[in-house]
Model the fold of this input.
Amino acid sequence: MLRRFVHDRVVRLREPGIRGHQAGAGWLFLAPVIVILGLFLILPIAMALWVSVSDWNGNGSPFGANAHWVGLQNYRHLLTEPGLDQNNFGTALRNNFYYVLLVVPIQTAVALFLAVLVNRRVKFVGFFRTAFYFPSVTSSVAITVLFLFLFTPDGVVNKVLSYFGATGPAWFYDPRGLIHVILGQFGVSSAPTALASHTFLGVTYWDWLAGPSIAMCVFIIMAVFTTSGTFMLLFLAALQNIDEAVNEAAALDGATEWRKFRHITVPMIKPAIFTIVTLGLIGTWQVFDQIYVGTKGSPLNTTVTPAYLSFDTSFNSNEWGVGAALAFILFAIIVFFTIVARLSTRNPDRVPRRRRFGPTDRLGDQNASRVASATPGSAP
Done:
């Protein structure tokens, strides 16, 4: 019996099929993609991982005699050892945290609002869709240069504010935090002792509570302006997939527009919301080109971000190990917030995968085939 079973298995494996010649052909077709991904993705990541645990200074090969193993020393410089590297990292993390905290919800809300507007059957809807999307296809460098002109001390924005009797700040030259500015209006101009004497990642609690600087607020406005159009299209596609009969049935039941939007539209576009929030988190934590073109971290490092700090530490300070460690810490932060976004937007009514195709009752139970809508108390 055992001999016959082994013989059948051997014969089956020798027969052509998905386990035979077709499997070999499949791997042959996949080989170019595997080679390309290995050379241009996997290998560079492995090299960067080695650099993050070495003291390579950029001279020669990172695998040569100029690079030595230092273990987690570069990560300790950033996370546990007080010093300039930790202070710069803490400052960059604070700046980027407020950037993410404001940009992601605002751009998501603006994109959804624009999608609802252009989803209606009105005149010139094609023009408005193009107009809202146009900033997204414009070069980020060009948009940054444009905002540099708009927000100069004697620029258009401050000129418009002067018509309303307000004096605009020196936007790109003002390092004050927005929360500190607001507290200053209520007479709070100095840090309490409890907040000034304690630090986290080399930054005092008082500075952690400073909020985004006036200069960073410009980049927040720029991010919302340039990304809302792209996310508008994603929301628009999700809205057009909603069956109109659902909204008509809700209207017949007396539901208002707000109740239909809250209880029908938003739950049905949750996958799109998750996608947009995830893309927003990844994009905002990776912001680099606007900072590089606009301010290079000034004034007083209030616009520096981890992505720009990684570049500056590597290429300008020649601390390639610390710069690579920064990149991997940033990668861990992005993965963490992506998981949080996934957990917060998942459907609570979703059936677990391990139970989706399982029986809902005991096998052989005569009551398993009853109609769920049967009236209580009816005879079996």
Q: What stands out?
A: Residues 368-380 have pLDDT under 50 and may be disordered. Residues 207 and 258 are 40 Å apart (CA to CA). Residues 98-177+212-241+272-347 form a domain with the MetI-like fold fold (CATH 1.10.3720.10).
